[in-house]
Structures
1.
Amino acid sequence: MQLRKITDGVSWLGVVDWNRRLFDSLIPLPDGTSYNAYLVRGTDKVALVDTVDPETWDVLQRQLEEVDTVDYIVAQHAEQDHSGCIPHVLAKYPAAKVVTNTKAKGMLMDLLDLPEDCFMIVQDGDTLDLGGKTLEFILTPWVHWPETMCTYLTEDRILFSCDFFGSHLATTDLYVADPPTVYEAAKRYYAEIMMPFKTIIRSNIAKVETRDIQIIAPSHGPMYDDPAFILDAYRDWVSDTVKNEVVLPYISMHGSTQQMVDHLVGALAARGVKVHVFDLTVTDIGKLAMAMVDAATIVIGTPTVQVGPHPAVVYAAHLANALRPKVKYAAVIGSYGWATKAVEHIAGAIPNLKVDLLGTVMCKGIPCADDFTALDALADQIKDKHAEL
Ligand code: FEO
């Protein structure tokens, strides 16, 4: 794809990675992704905001054939999908300076072996005049690494936000053209990498909102020419508000836990509680993460394997603990053959979740009438707790 004009002197360049299906060897990318870079031409100087994943350097290299000079490479984030081509760009434009903050400088030196003298360090609120184009640097830590920052182009009212507000979505749309699709991709992205940092994200939203923003230009997915679309979504996701929903990841080996899950799901649905059910043998962990953004309660279902929970359940519990969703309540259901410590293991695996443990229902062998009665009682308890919220 060629450079695409955004405003006079400002262009999108970068890569639409249609076929990438996994990020960080962890995160599913069902809809591909993009690595967006931006070129800002002033009357005096030219700045490139971020680069692209190094695997796709050939694309950026071709785009830069029509760019005679780059004076500044603004590195908003040290992760390699944005910084990884900085060495290539420096080789092409040896006089260019890498403009970034102090923390990012250290990380870029560690990750890319960049020489110390290539950097120009900026502080929060510093500006860089390119000649009729002024870049203001806004430090926004933990979206999603400690060094992340945004760049505001004053004259054009464009906020370059890197991962912040991004979406893993391969599309030829320069701007959001299909809001539901982008909302889904952006929420998935938030859930997978931003959710642990809800509190500081709130302050970062407030910080960038003090600028008059016409366009938000993230480094993944399409740009937002209606910034309120993504700002409102983020405000909702990082709020303390939870929904009358349960997320229920589980494994069943011989059917007992499956019966428990089926009964509880039916009991909750009958009580007006929405349930997101994830059989972990076939689960897209991105969808599981998304369901955890809003749910008031997590119920973990597990059989017993060697006294503890099934390893796939341990993985899901570890994921939930790492993502720190705003769930308020938790419960464990499942089964065992002769003895179990599954509940204790799961409880020990989720210390980051600030939840009230509503209860556990573990059946011995196949579930009996008392077990189903206990599940009905758990459903009553969940319904009542949600009503209090
Ligand atoms: Fe898109 Fe944190 O890199």
2.
Amino acid sequence: MKISLPTTSPLTSKDFVYGVATSSFQIEGAAEKREISIWDTFCDTPGKIVDASNGLVACDHYHLWEQDINLIHDLGVDAYRFSICWPRIINNDKSVNRDGVDFYLKVLDKLNELGIKPFVTLYHWDLPQIHEDHGGWLNRETAYHFRDYVEVVVREFGDRVHSYATLNEPFCSAYLGYEVGIHAPGKADRMLGRKAAHHLLLAHGLAMQVLAKESPLTLNGIVLNFTPCYPLTDSPEDKLATQKADDYINQWYMKPIMDGSYPSLIEELPYEQRPDILDDDLAIINHPIDFLGINFYTRLKYRAKAGHLYEEIPPGDVEKTDIGWEVFPQALTDLLVSLNDTYDLPPLYITENGMAGDDHVESGQVKDQLRINYYQAHLEALNQAIQQGVKVDGYFAWSLMDNFEWAEGYLKRFGLVYVDFETQERTLKDSAHCYKEFITQRV
Ligand code: FCB
């Protein structure tokens, strides 16, 4: 029922940062007070969102922000990770939306007043539709528009912010959005994914330049998602295919940032699938970062397949969450240890970890023991990695509350807090009580 770790673990220290995370499109609503993003357009396209829902209201956090921040405070966390909605800050005519800026200023002021560290993500997928109309992340110019937007944010928010992450999970924006089409803007073309990825990485590098110059005291970095890859068998063919899968989905984003080069797999891709890389691009992308955020949920298995780089094997009869992702905490330890062996890492933060559950309120209670077990197992796995020498400074549960889970709509509940989307009533799940108890008992 509880979450607990040995008191000898650095994870039970007050110096370790615990938080909860959300993102703008998933919780804010108040769509009428901002410009349209690619996710609005995607939601309006029949068949794209499982329950045909959208982000027009979501958790109505735009109006309920004060109550939500008080809830975060009640959980006893040290930090709150949330994202800024680009089309709420910059109007289509390029002017600044004062109402949008003021909304985030109120949020930031309240967090600081309560002693909660604001971890701000500058881009969690809600690209202004106006940029998509000009090619979106396939257009190099979008990276420069992002830089201009970041300049505005930094100027407006100043030292109210504790940490800035440029992008959340560029893999999802590029691969899911432009290569397989299950996320906005819904383009499905193998030729497009790497090109979009390169412009996202360029946007990250350009934003890092702005942050380093205009906001040197905040903790500036990026959030990447990793899905560790395991071979189906020990055969050399399956191992090689697995390594290629890892390069394609994980290291493709990590290596340019850390080493200033793409994985050698790039040489194996047909020319038309490769990105257009200009002279200074990789040096810009390779800008030093103060921290790396890691989002971890699950692992995947692969095997060799003739004529393909690799073949992904769907999880079989194993423990899975409500969204179908295998529960495999060992992969978190393996991932962190292997990243530490491979790269010269900055301090790490686990910026997302959590699970979707089939949650229900019964007599005012949500009994989500599976989620408690998930957090327990993953904190243990994190502890293992730390014992093996990996430096991790913080951990954020995804998510503070149930919200719009992208293509799954409101059907997948990831929150520590249950949201009734009809009434907007929030109910702390059992996992929220356990997370709170664990955090507040630290010494
Ligand atoms: C991550 C996203 C986050 C949430 C979780 C479940 O990929 O960053 O917004 O949807 O998955």
3.
Amino acid sequence: MAGEPQPDCLFCKIVSGEIPATIVRETETTVAFRDINPQAPTHVLVIPRLHHADAASLAAAEPAVAADVLREAGNVAADEKITETGYRIVLNTGAGAGQTVFHAHAHVLGGRGMQWPPG
Ligand code: 5GP
Ligand code: ZN
């Protein structure tokens, strides 16, 4: 059921501690940890503790938690001192857009220049 921990979900296992991660921030509703395959000097994932498949599903079901994820993305950027230079929040949605883990997550990328449009 949406919102409940999913036994086969990698990010639910990071929330529970079953799989280790380099956690940089935690709140009552979110966890932020370093991406295992960083694409920029700062590459942190911010996830809700609740399981929802993607960011839009999370926002539809739990709008306050979706806001928490975005606020935490900004807090990560401040901690990493990339607020001034700029950073990108990425919400890949669907396999065709590069989503590989179907537990909502925001990528926070920064510390280098960013191209537009994205690939
Ligand atoms: P997506 O492709 O779904 O937008 O992002 C999933 C992200 O999760 C990828 O950037 C990938 O590197 C990261 N990732 C996959 N497995 C692990 C893991 O076990 N630990 C951490 N910290 N990141 C992971
Ligand atoms: Zn999950």
